[in-house]
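Changelog-adjacent note: as of this version, every example in the card shows the full chain rather than a window. The one below runs 288 residues end to end.
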Amino acid sequence: MPRNAIDWYLHEYPQLTLPVERGMSAERRYLDIVRYGVLPEGPPDNPFFCTDEDERQVLESPVGPIQVLYLADRGDFERFVQVFSGRCEPIAVPPTMGAVTFFDVRNWREVDEHRRRWERERRPSWPMELLRVLSGPTCFADVIVLVSKGGYSALSAADAGYPEAEWLRVSRVLRTYHEATHVTCRKRWPSHRETIRDEVVADCVGLLASTGGYDAGLARRFLGVGEGGYVPGGRLENYVAERESLDSAVGRARVAVEACERVCAEMRDAGPFDILARIEDTRAGMIA
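Full-length structure tokens:
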């Protein structure tokens, strides 16, 4: 039985047990795990702090169940991000990052189980089957959704207009559905890629799921979109395209927020994922 929420992940992805330090991405012990599937024996070490609030949950979505890991300790969240996004290097994690989805993470445990079944059935040429497995980026690859504790977009409860405990609850649900939106769009509408628009849409679904309505003013505040332009500290600066001005990015964000507001007004009684489907069907009107 897992002793805490992260135990399952430590078993499935042993790179989580390695130190996060400069040069680790080039070390043999890291490469053995992520490139060659060399799995350690015995129970994994747990370098995470862990809290009683941590939780592994399953969210039902239009593309099936999504595994979500909630980590209440900020250090644990940042360490998890550094392992997967930084390849065990100590990269900086922006304070406005409160959730992230890792796509196509190779699950060598499942590959190993597949090998055992293959050999039990006396099927020929495991090396050839392994090449087939490794040639498909999504073959035995997982989606990992990670959610942290704290105010959404690093916004305080007072600034968001909520009591502290309620804002933490709203923020957790908002982050979870925001990431579930990215997973749903990646699988159902893979050609619909426009970073700022996608962030606005994911915030929209998150707000609907966590508060029951779409607050366009709060949505703009998450991104730092003010009446006079960009407000430093918002998430928008993380999504600006190369050689694009912040003014241009602000304009595109405004157009997307207004489009979400229109769709939500038209579909007042619809569920968050139903509204997402309508938004994606009418996406042309959301690009400035």
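Structural remarks: Strands lie at 55-61, 64-71, 99-106, 141-148, 225-226, 229-230.
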